[in-house]
Design a protein that fits this description.
The chain is an alpha+beta fold. Helices cover 23% and strands 32% of the residues. The protein has a domain of 186 residues: Jelly Rolls.
């Protein structure tokens, strides 16, 4: 970007009759400025986006129509006494076979029992000007006869620095998407729907440096089903950088317009 400014500035100082023809095309500079600002304001967010992890629940492998209480590392069980299990998806009574998108593979996570949950330390420290997105395929068990609405995708901050999840009082609740929310997507019986929750830190540094925690929860009776759980992070360009770029382009455009007006008068 600095090189572009240098080239254009030198072109202004050494303009001659050979470049006079080119000046007619300089009316496109405002459009160029808008495109450049848009690229830096929005393009860099996509360019710097990355997947922190994706969990497909394909390990450990369990036999058809059976379950296991073992969880793949580094997931941990939060609520003692309640069942958290991996359900083998070969049970065609619950879900269409093969598992339709956005699910996939042969196994899914089942959380059964009131306020059952599992958590994962993300390994990502919260930073300003970042967007964290937690998404998952949520299944609707065909044997329930009603929408499975007690699932919850939650993000927390490890405020006490324990590298574990203790919940309220020790960690800071950031936000959630949950099954009974008006913005949740409910799948048809035996099918799956993609749901997500995003948190943008903006310029608030109150949680900066604290590790992000992912928490999956079944907050009422019955069971919740999860597959293809994913956490991603993207960086938002700082507003100051965009403002500096915009002001620089605007000054360049105004300067060229004034030179053109002066040459027209002469």
């Amino acid at each position: 970007m600095i090189l572009i400014f240098v080239i254009l500035a030198r072109a202004d100082r050494h303009e001659n009759s050979a470049t006079a023809v080119v000046r007619n095309g300089q009316k496109c500079l405002p459009v160029l400025g808008i495109l450049l600002v848009s690229f830096f304001a929005f393009g860099s967010r996509d360019a710097e986006a990355g997947i922190v992890f994706t969990e497909t629940w394909e390990s450990p492998v369990v036999a058809a129509n059976s379950t296991t209480t073992l969880l793949p590392a580094p997931w941990g069980e939060f609520t003692g006494g309640a069942m958290s299990s991996i359900l083998h998806a070969a049970d065609a009574n619950r879900f269409a076979q093969p598992l339709p998108s956005p699910a996939g593979g042969n196994q899914v996570l089942e959380l059964a029992g009131t306020n059952t949950g599992i958590f994962r330390m993300s390994g990502e420290a919260l930073q300003i000007n970042s967007i964290f997105t937690l998404s998952a395929a949520i299944g609707n068990d065909a044997t329930l006869g009603a929408a499975n609405e007690f699932w919850s995708l939650q993000l927390w901050a490890d405020t006490n620095g324990s590298s574990s999840f203790e919940g309220s009082g020790s960690d800071t609740f950031i936000g959630q998407q949950f099954g009974s929310s008006s913005t949740a997507v409910t799948a048809a019986e035996g099918q799956w729907a993609l749901n997500s929750f995003s948190f943008e830190t903006g310029g608030d540094d109150s949680l900066s440096g604290q590790e992000l925690i992912v928490f999956l929860n079944n907050f009422d009776t019955g069971s919740s089903y999860y597959d293809n759980v994913s956490l991603s992070v993207s960086t938002v360009p700082e507003p100051s950088s965009v403002c500096i770029l915009s002001v620089g382009l605007l000054a360049l455009i105004v300067g060229r317009r004034r030179r053109e007006a002066h040459l027209d008068v002469c």
